[in-house]
Amino acid sequence: MFRMVCRTFHLEQPIGAIVAQMRTNMRMMTDGNVRDRSKESAREIRHFIEVGISKQTLKPGDKLPTEREIASRFTAARNTVRKTLDRLEQDGLIIREVGRGTFVSGKPLVQALSGGSLSLSSHLDLDLVRQTSPRDLMEFRLSLEPSIAELSVARASGADIEQMQAAIDQSCVAKDLQQFENCDDALHKAIAASTRNPLFSAFSVIVTEIRNQGDWGALKKKTLTDKMRDVHTVEHRAIVDGIRRRDSVAAFAAMRIHLQNVKSMMFKDE
User: Fold this and answer.
1) CATH number at residue 184
2) Rounded CA gap, 238 and 257, in Å?
């Protein structure tokens, strides 16, 4: 009877293989739903804290709820809460003290979020992030970032340039891909912030959010060898050198060359 059914539906696989494939598909769907929910929870948590600081219902020195309490309130995994708080700490919005808890920092929200750009990570539409491919992102970056570097030449302060250089220096001692990517991200954010244009800073936040999705990370893990890290570092130095020398042509060209090389590296197998 089953053989007849198989022939009717043109199924050539044995029943065991079919069931195994169905289970695999169900697991993949479940994993995707879990990842989507994790991203939504992270945005909700960050939005709650940012709005609280903005409206001053959360003031400098105020203690935040525990990770367990936040996880319960937002129906989030503890790991999601921890990663979200890590990013808020990196942005300077909160301070975490071992044994005491997590507190709102004294740094103003606008200052903490890269030169006046209100973080968009809690407001970006999940579908936008998910539907934007690495190729889409590189096309977007190539259309804007060379001009951002060019404008930085005219507006960056000495402190801004020191911050850019610090990001490069830290990338040279990065222990793994994620640390290197964080330093890379910090450099591009610093360049955008140095323009004093909040829209460019907002652009850098969008780039960060999309870079944090799985497709970008998988491509970088596949293509960013130690040799290519060294190449990117040389390119980063050329960009900052152009800004430091107040050479807008050099800064524009160095950024464009860098992004074109990143694009070529990531899609060389296509």
Assistant:
1) 1.20.120.530
2) 10
pLDDT per residue as tens digits for the range 178-188: 889 889 989 99
What pLDDT, on a 0 to 100 scale, did the predictor assign at position 63?
92
Q: Within a 10 A sphere around the Cβ of 125, how many other Cβ atoms?
A: 9
**Interatomic CA distance for residues 171 and 177, integer angstroms:** 10
The residue count for the chain: 270
Q: Total domain count for the chain?
A: 2
- Domain with 59, as residue range(s), is 2-112
**DSSP conformation letters of 29-40:** HHHHHHHHHHHH
Question: Tokens at residue 206, please?
Answer: 């969008």
Q: What is the pLDDT of residues 133-154, one digit of tens each?
A: 888 989 999 999 999 999 999 9
For residues 217 and 231, give the distance between their C-alpha atoms in angstroms, rounded to a whole number.
Answer: 19
8 Å CB contact between 182 and 225: no
163 found inside a domain? yes
* pLDDT for the residue numbered 252: 98
Place of tokens 């709005």: 51
Whether 130 and 235 share a structural domain: yes
Q: Are residues 97 and 146 in the same domain?
A: no
Mean pLDDT of 84-111: 79
Mean pLDDT of the chain: 81
